Amino acid sequence: MEVPVSVVIPAYNAAGTLIKSVESVANQTYKPKEVIIVDDGSTDNTPNIIEKLKNRYGKNWIISILLSENVGPSGARNRGIEYSSQPYIAFLDADDAWHPQKLESQFYFINRNNDIDIISCKFSEGFNEKNNARLDLSLLKLNIINKNNLLYGNKISVQTVLCKKILGLKFDQSKRYSEDY
After folding, report:
1. Which has the closest alpha carbon to 14: 35, 37, 42?
2. 135 partner at 20 to 30 Å CA-CA among 64, 90, 156, 162?
């Protein structure tokens, strides 16, 4: 089943990990409408890997944006958000992978609860041997997070997020580290 989701993947010198990340998106039980890979001024073989992925999965499914200089993950994500054409956006870093049912579980939930605009789940550190995924969907449960909770630490990891594009979400481009907070 295809769902109206744009997946935004910032990639900087990610030639060694990008294929695995995109494969984890391609292997979703609910497939996103598009994948936007933003090459953030890579100096390695990342642009060639992106072309190989476009040939493998289709130029209409993978959209590539090649930045001439490195703007950092926040700037790359923001550029991907600008190009996204779907009402929902999910984020994945080029060195992470998703559980095969990540989009199915999250889209099913958010699509049936109109008052929820963003959803995330916990993730596992390290890769699961069975499916190479860092997300632990057995931990996908409803947790209410408010501004007070965030004062004590970030409860949301960017690669676990699915949100409505209408939120106008933008990342702070002045932050080069911990930018997903």
Report:
1. 42
2. 64
Look up residue 82 and give its amino acid: E
Model pLDDT for residues 88-125, shown as the tens digit of each residue = 999 999 999 999 999 999 999 888 888 888 887 766 65
Q: What is the full DSSP assignment across 115-130?
A: T--EE---B-SS--TT
Question: What tens digit of pLDDT does each residue of 154-173 get?
Answer: 667 778 889 999 888 888 77
Backbone phi, psi, residue 81, to 5°? -60, -45
Q: Edge-to-edge strand order for the sheet containing 162-164?
A: 62-67, 31-40, 2-11, 88-91, 162-164, 118-119
Concatenated DSSP letters for 39-108?
EES-SSSHHHHHHHHHHHH-TTTEEEEEESS--HHHHHHHHHHHH--SSEEEE--TT----TTHHHHHHH
